[in-house]
Structures
1.
Amino acid sequence: MEDLTDVYNDLIMEHSMNSYNKKELENADYSQIGHNPNCGDEITLQIKMNGDVIQDMAFSGHGCAISQASTSIMIDTLRGKTIEEAKEIVRIFIEMIKRETTDEKELKKLEDAIAFKNVSNMPARVKCALLAWHTIEEILEKNGK
Amino acid sequence: MDINKIKKDFPILENRKIAYLDSGATTQKPIQVIKAIEEYYQKYNANPHRGAYSLSIEATQAYENTREKIANFINAKNKEEIIFSKNATESLNLLAYSYGMQKLKKGDEVVLSIMEHHSNLVPWQKVCKITESKLNYMYINEEFEIPDEEIENKITDNTKIVAITHVSNVLGTINNIKKIIKQAHKKGAIIIVDASQSIPHMRIDVQDLDCDFLAFSGHKMLAPLGIGVLYGKKELLNKMEPFLMGGDMIEFVYEQETTFAPLPNKFEAGTQNVEGVIGLGAAIDYIENIGYDKIEKKEKELISYARQELSKLDYLTLYLTPKEENHSSVISFNIKGVHPHDVASILDTEGVCVRSGNHCAQPLMRFLGIDSTCRASFYFYNTKEDVDKLVSGLNKAYQIFEKYFK
């Protein structure tokens, strides 16, 4: 088992317990609910677009520290990115968690979200880390040209 | 047999240095059960009820002897009243389809408790929708128990079926099923008891209880996965239509018509889980060998200690009845402000296995106003050291989160 401080570190804990991204967006263009029926975690992601750039995002809902922090850090990472850039980052994150990529150059694009790398060693928590990323993947699939 | 040295019978508890506190989900298996299954495959494996050769007859005998053993174990009048199933879920589905679907009419009522496991809830929901019957719930009070008035008010002349768990898999509350059974019969309803969480811990006597049906899973009482039991009163089972159709449950099959086998085969279609039945037989032998009196005494001490130690942690919310005599081997709790999934992960790194989530009881969670809990569930092989490990793991989890509380 991994050392807990690898996962429950300051960055993840601050984002999970006291996230500034946990709020309501006014005039959001997209809103999508994501949930894990097994554990009951549920988040709502909101996105405000400016052309094909993600101008702002926010989330609400409840879940474990890993799902909440993963959502908040994802928002920080994707804010200001184009849809195409966002799609790539989402792909890399999912591949990292599923241990399908270890390419350092690619992982750099994840910025702070690389903090979840060790979750790939905790099979019981993979779903928690991926909740927000699968949710935005769905939004981007549906709406991104 | 010294119950305090029992851990050595459980290879997994010897091999892994863990405090296994998830026996409510499934128990570990003693070497005696594992060996019985191995012996079956090495010495007398064949398809029961099928062959004229001695091997098949031996397999049939082992299978049928276990049926008799279970009948004695729960004090059923006849061994034909014991039906083998996959698990309690399948036993309850059998009842929903073969009893509920046939008997319920528009306006009839089915009564459950709010603490039912989904397996004793979702099947009734479906049957009630199809038959246009009404599904009513007995709710719990602030002590996590069903008050007597709730039993009297909810089970009425319109009630045709009452299905109730003996022990809650979330709260550990031991329900007053004797009162519920009496009330159901007084109103002319049949009563189904889900004994999944009780039979591992306490003696069940179906004649003394006078329940009409009783369901349980083998794997929560030392037996392998995939074997369950349905007990039913003979006169009721005889009147019911079969559940699954196929081989071995028939008498004569014509191109357009079939007549069915008598009990118990009528409800056992297809090749059965003989290894599971053999394993369940060995599990019952193991339990009888220790004795329920000793199991109850040991667990009472253990639970009492766990209640006492967990109550000292003021950062915990406990979901348990204050009446120790009404509380079995399950304790649900939350660290205030921390998600149970995180707590369970941290406990895991400390070698403590607990379950977190809604425990297949979403309506109960909603009623309690929470999404999920951590659940520690105990069996006689657990020790006070396991409780101590849980407490120190909880302290560690709290410390990790404490400094981020704002």
Note: Residues 111 and 162 of chain B are 5 Å apart (CA to CA).
2.
Amino acid sequence: MKFHSFLIKYGEIGIKGKNRYLFEDALVRQMRYALKDVDGEFIVHKAQGRVYVDCDGEYDYEETIASLKRVFGIVGICPVVKLEDLGFEQLKKDVVAYVDEMYPDKNRTFKVEARRSRKNYPMNSMEINCDLGEVLLETFSEMKVDVHKPQISLNVEVRAKHIYLYSEIIPGAGGMPVGTNGKAMLLLSGGIDSPVAGYMVSKRGVGLEATYFHAPPYTSERAKEKVVDLARLVSKYSGPIKLNVVNFTDIQLYIYEKCPHEELTIIMRRYMMKIAEHFAKESGCLGLITGESIGQVASQTMQSLAATNEVCILPVYRPLIGFDKQEIVDVALKIDTYETSILPFEDCCTIFVAKHPVTKPNLERIKKSETHLEEKIDELYNEAIRSVETIIVK
Amino acid sequence: MEVYLDNSATTRCYGEVAEIAAKVMCGDYGNPSSMHKKGLEAEHHIRDAKEVFAKLLKVDARTLYFTSGGTESDNLALIGCARANRRRGNHLITTQIEHEAILNTMRHLEEEEGFRVTYLPVDENGRVQIEALKEALCKETILVSVMYVNNEVGAVQPIQEAVQTVKSFNRNILFHSDAVQGFGKYQIYPKRMGIDLLSVSSHKIHGPKGMGLLYIGENVKITPIAYGGGQQKNIRSGTENVPGIAGMAKAASLIYADLKGNTEKMRMLKKHFMEGVSTIENIRIHGLTDERSAPHIISVGFAGIRSEVLLHTLEEKGIYVSSGSACASNHPAVSGVLKGMGVPREYLDSTLRFSLSEFTTLEEIDYTLETLYNCVPMLRKYTRH
């Protein structure tokens, strides 16, 4: 079946009152972005309170659907057949042919739902419903009508120039269009969790920036490349991501030299948060995002989270906080980041991990340990920020 | 300064090799099986290449087959011979320190095709134990495969002794040797030595990648492992990689033009490097260091430093080396070769392989030593406790 258009269903945008156009415009923008690399000519437009993707020429159907399914804000995608209005007799034939091709198994219930935006059409909606229902029942003896819970809802829309026919709804990503809720800074590692966390927040309409802590020679060029790849996979949903690659080696070694080893991870993470927050503020992000989930590792106990949280003023969003590992893996598989995440390159968190890191850090003690860093830490901190490498990932 | 000391992983192509490959690609691009003149030109390149290898290996040109590399040569030799000779027995012998191309092919034959495989242990120098070979040989044995030079530590295997042991037990047992690290460093005459099958790779001798050779002795029964147009006497179907073949032959003739000079130079640099590196505390050079080790491979353990970290530290200074063998480095498992040699624990995941080529200079070796003198103590300050 050749579809000429896609009707886009969006959920929550519909209830946004006077801001509605902002949300719709963002949705249209994100859809255009998602479709820019798909083979075919697409016209994304708003009409009568709906969003359509018109594609009259040749295009790649599978890729189009796959791309639209990654646009946040879309609840459903309806592939539409656009018919010339050549009179009602022709419409009957076309509807029969459509049903015949779409549903090889005819043993189903259906309902015709006609709507007319062209009010001067010679028949009203009810008459169209009845007459099309009749011809379908006559042609396909196994089909039955069910007006309450039909298996096939056959929509017939009589519009200004054409008649639109659709009956299938392909589920979309849900959420809200990116760009309607500001920007946040994702602390991106090479693991499974942080890309999922970025995806989850972005789903609520938030644009992403990311910060990655690189520790050469303890982490390799390949580990960095893996993070860029992960950012690229997330950006298929969130749109372009500005990735800050921070060289963290000197800070890490300095902490290692001066502080108790069992506190290393916590202190390190406190500095990571500080640096990420610096970049977040610099580029107008409204919060930080991490992939932490309570109790997953020593640095993610309630006490540890409190200790790392304490260094920031910006809110820290932790969308996975109540997730079990398997639940996180399930999302990673769904958004296609899992395979990249499990490639075996060390990230800098695992290099100097003590055998028995503190699981219930005492904030006062941590702060006291940090006083040992006073001599050089500001200089190292400024150098890490100054030497940042910025990569635009899309 | 850029110092490439990973020549056992792959080598830089000779300029002349790239030239002739380009000439074949753009000029003599015919299909050697075509009946017209263009096809004949291409066929001439293959014939000439075979002549080059026939002379170098002192074998008949008709016993040479071109493949896509060392891995395919090994697969064809092992699988092809195992299948063709299965009526005579189902026992195969190899060593614990072979390249994955041998080990995983053997595992396949073991698990999927019902052969029994014995993996021979090595001594503390990484050399196969002839006594163990004697014990393993039995009435069912049809094939023995022992590598020429080990790729991780450079141990030269006692091939002649192994061949004699096998052939005096039963001269019908086939002997295969993976000479990927040996060819281009040694004069290897398989027929005279009693080797029935020999694998060679092109990109380890400054030739193009994706190119290899298999010598199959005259009376060896072998069956193809891929089917197609029947090229190369139906043993290895598929249009021949003519530019690769011409390039590999060029590389081989260049590397053998001054084999003695080149290997002596490498040996001198190796000795210089070993002396220098030995002044660092708590290091260990694995395996032998005399003539029974390859001129181009030095395997060194640096206690207390994970090999990956030292590798990236050297990389920052423009020095490129491997941890263990490059093929195995992307799945960070501890080297089976070092374990098999009984290398102490603290060196197992702290070992780097430095491998030289004829392009390596004294200046480069000194720069590498200087870098190690600076980096090793610095890195040892920060180790995991």
Note: The longest helix of chain B spans residues 37-57.
